C-alpha cells in the first residue's frame, strides 16, 4: 500500500455500520452456481475462511499493483502507464467481486474482528469503477493517464523547449522570487498543465461515480465521506465544527499578511475586494506561506535562522536530509530504516526520465519494503516533508503485524498527521543538537518562530478544507464540467480569500495543476491532519513529562513519547479511529484546542498588530446562482 496514489485508496477502510444503501447491492450480485441450486446457509466458519482467503488474495495482488505503480511513477512511459492501469484493473475487479460475495454473510453474528474486516472490505474502495469490464478498463486507464500527465507537466519559460521546468524546480522559484511579474509568469506557466486534463477528468468523475453508485453510494464523494466511522452527514458536520474552531486564527493571519504584502508590493498586492493575489505567498498553490516569512516579518523579529539557507550552504543531499528525519524516529525508540529503504527509494529527480515528483511514502510488500519517492531539494519545506513521509513509513512498519485488512491508518487523516506531529518537534533546541544552528534564540524570538509556523500550518487550513469541497460538488453533480474552474475559484476565494493573479476562464483547469486532483488522492485527510497533529504532539509532550509552553516542546530522545506513539501506530485500523485517538491522547474526540493553545501567544500578538485594520474580504457574485 502506498501513500499517496490511486491504488492506495483500495486500502482506505474504516469501520462503519453497513449503509442501508448497500441493500441495493443484491441487484448486482453476479450469478454463481451456488445461487442456482439452493445454497447451504453460510456459517461463521465459512465467513472466517472467506475472510482469510480474501486477505491473502488481495494482499498478494496489492504487492503486484504496488510494484507496477512504483515503476510507473519513477519511470513514466506509455508502457508503464498501461501496465499500472492493467494491474489496478485486476485489483478493482477482484475487490469488487469480493465485496459482492461477502454479502452472503450479512445476517451472521461474527466475532468483532471478523465483522470489522468485512466492513472494511465493503467500504474501502476509493476509486470505484463500473462492473462492466470495458468501462472498468477505461477508468483505470484514465486514472493512470491523469497521474502521468501531472508527472510529465513542464513549464518552458519564453516557450523555449530546451529550458523546461518541472514542479520540483518551480516550487523553489515560487518560494524565493520576489518579482510579482515573474511570479505571475511562473504561476500561469505551471497552471497551464491542468488545461488538457479537463476532459479526462470529467470522464473519470463520471466513471468512478458509476462505480460508486453500483456499490450503493450516492456518488464518489459520499463514498469518500463514508470512511470515518460515522455517517457521511456526521462527517460533514464534524469538518464544519473543526473549521469553525480554527477559522478566527486564519482570518487574523490573512489580515496581517495582506497588509505586509501591500507594504512590500503596493498595487501588485492590493485588491479592492481585500483578497490576496495567489502568486505572492511563496507557494504555487498558496497553500503554505512560510516561504515569505522575510516579507511579512515584523521589523523587530527577523527569523532567527534560515534553515533552507543552512541546508543549501552545507550541500545537504537528499540522503542526508532523510538521515536527519530517521534520526528523530530512532531517538524515540523506533528501528532504523531497513537497508532496502536506502537501496530502493527514489529521493532525487533522475536526470533522464519523467517521474511523479510529488512526494509519497510506499509500503510495497505490506512488510518491511518501505520506500520514499520524492525529488528532494535542500529546502526548509523538504526538511518537513522528509519527516512527513517517514511518518507514513513508520506507521506502515508499526502495523505490519496486523492482518492485511487492518494494515492502514486509523483513518487517512491519522496517516497524514504522524510525520507532521514529529516535525513540530523541530525546535531551535533540536536544531542545535543536530549542529545545524549554533545558538538557541532567546524567548523573545518565540513570536517570529510561531509566525513562521503559522504561515505554514494555519494558512493551510482553508486550502485543506476546500479541495474536497470542490470534488464533492463535482461528484454530486452540483458543479458540471463547464463550471469546473469558476467553482474552484469560488471556493478558493470564499475560504482562503486568495484570488488568481491572472484572469481565468473555463478554458483553464486549475484543479489539474494540484497533484491530488489528477492523482485521485482524497484531500480532506490533510485538513484533519492539521488538527490531529497538534493533538498528537501535545500527547507526546505530556508523555515525555514536558511542562511549559507547547511551542517550545521537543520530545527528541523521549522513549516514553515514542512508546505512546507506537501504541497507537501498531493498532493500525483494527479499531475505530476514536479508540486509536484515545490510546494516544486520552480523548476520543477530534479537537482543535491543541492547535489553538499552540498558537495562542501569536493570536494575541496578531490581534494587536491588526488593530484598526479591516479584516476579511468581499466575494464576487456566485457564478452558479
Ligand atoms: O501531499 C502531501 C504529502 C504526501 S501525502 C507530500 N501533502 C499535501 C500537499 O502537498 O498538498 C502534505 C501536506 C499537504
Ligand atoms: Zn502524506
Description of the structure:
- This protein has 625 residues and is an all-alpha fold.
- It has 23 helices and 5 strands.
- The strands form 2 sheets. Strands 1-3-4 form a 3-stranded antiparallel β-sheet, with helices on both faces. Strands 2-5 form a two-stranded parallel sheet.
- Residues 4-34 have low confidence and may be disordered.
- The protein binds L-captopril (X8Z) and zinc ion.
Secondary-structure content class: mainly alpha
Low-confidence stretches: 4-34
Biggest β-sheet description: 3 strands, antiparallel
Average pLDDT level: 93
Rounded radius of gyration (Å): 24 Å
Quick summary:
The protein has helices at 33-36, 44-73, 78-102, 112-123, 133-152, 167-176, 180-191, 198-214, 220-225, 232-265, 293-296, 307-313, 318-331, 339-344, 380-398, 412-423, 428-433, 446-476, 484-496, 524-543, 559-571, 577-585, 593-609; strands at residues 2-3, 276-277, 360-363, 370-373, 498-499.
List keywords for this structure.
single chain, 625 residues, mainly alpha, three-stranded antiparallel beta sheet, 23 helices, 5 strands, binds L-captopril, binds zinc ion
Please render the helix and strand layout as text.
Elements: E1 2-3, H1 33-36, H2 44-73, H3 78-102, H4 112-123, H5 133-152, H6 167-176, H7 180-191, H8 198-214, H9 220-225, H10 232-265, E2 276-277, H11 293-296, H12 307-313, H13 318-331, H14 339-344, E3 360-363, E4 370-373, H15 380-398, H16 412-423, H17 428-433, H18 446-476, H19 484-496, E5 498-499, H20 524-543, H21 559-571, H22 577-585, H23 593-609
Parallel strand pairs: 2-5
Antiparallel strand pairs: 1-3, 3-4
The chain binds L-captopril (X8Z) and zinc ion.
Zinc ion is lined by residues 3-4, 388, 392, 416.
